[in-house]
Each structure stands twice: as structure tokens, then as C-alpha cells.
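Input sequence (231 aa), recorded before submission:
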Amino acid sequence: MQPDPSLILFDVNETLSDTSSLSARFAEVGVPAELAQPWFAVLLRDGFALAAAGGSRPFAEVGADALRSVLHSAGTGTGTGTGTDTDLDRAAEHVLGAFGRFPLHDDVAPGLRALRRGGRRLATLTNGSRAVSEQLLTAAGVREEFEALLSVEDAATWKPGPAAYRHALRSCGVEAADVLLVAVHPWDLHGAAAAGLATAWIDRNGAPYPRTLTAPTVRATSLVDLAEQLA
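Predicted structure, C-alpha cell format:
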């Protein structure tokens, strides 16, 4: 049976935003473009480690440290100068500045509007900053579809820590049973399921879902597909 949520929560990075141009940001500061994916993986790893130990730091700070780590492991400088801390800081600022400027996936705007027409409340819950979500969604012309833009910066822990999802429930005044968390990341869905939320996996590329993680309540190929399934 399909869930009938009153509130739908959306992950932002990669779920709504198309981050495929991230590698270009690396190239623009003289860093090998192929390091973009390892960098993002290290960023998430370190954010999750902080959460597991009961701590939290802003996405941008963790991202800057991850860039230093990846560049050191790859044995490369930034290409922006001498490889000093100032060069690294500038490179990190340029890379992280992309997150508020990415385009949305093509299915996002029509999918969001279809969900709103269906009477759903919509909000975001990101491991990044609220300001980045505001910039991204405003530029794409879909900010008005959301009643709230939430960030784990106000929750004291990153997703998939349970406190992050509880923060969203409190902020929106809903019970876990009335909420659907939408993401492309199985780790996010697993955390949401552990917190009692229904989950929807947006699988745009046909990837297998990890069998070691809690299976999603709904599987969809796009937000438009999700809206049709929930209609």
C-alpha cells in the first residue's frame, strides 16, 4: 500500500540539484576533475563520523577539510598558486560555491508542482546550509513550493542521525507516521526509516539498492513518477 503523507521532506544535494558539473569546478581551480566524486565521499564520511560521535560541524567546514585530505592523498596542489593554506581556502570556496548554483534535475520542478496540486506540504532537510537551499531553489523558481527549508545546522547532527529527522518533525509540527522522506541516497532513507518515516527512493540511473539497508517504502524514477504514484 502506498503511503499517504501530509508532509514530504526532500533531501537537496543530488536529490533536487544536478551536481554533474561539480567536476568543472575542480578543473577551474587546477584540480583534477576526477577528484570531485572522491572529495564528496570524504565530505560525507567525515560528516557522518562527527554525527556518530555526537558532534556536528557546518557542511562548508567539513567540505574544506575534505578537499585538503583528497588533494594530499592524490599528491597534488591546487594549481592556483603555491599550494598554501590561502590557495586551498580559495579552491574550497570556489568548489563549495557551486552548491547554490547547480541546476535542478529536469523532473524536479514539474514533480514538485504535481505534488503540491495533490495537496501535499513540502519542505527540505539538508546536510548543507539553509542559505544554499534558499539560493538554489529561488534561482530555479520553485522556492514558493516549499513551506520550510530546514538544515541540520539547527539539529546538532547530520543526517542520517535520528536527531536530524526529529528536528524536521518538530519544526513542521508533524508525527513521523505522516512524513515521507525523498532522497537519492540510500543512507538517508535508511536513517529516515529508523526514525519512523516513510521513504521514497529516486533512482534516476537504475542503480541497485543496497540490500544491507532498509528498503524504501516507494521506488520512483523521478519526482514526476513519485507524484503519479502518490496521486
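Checked by second reader. Residues 64 and 127 are 15 Å apart (CA to CA).
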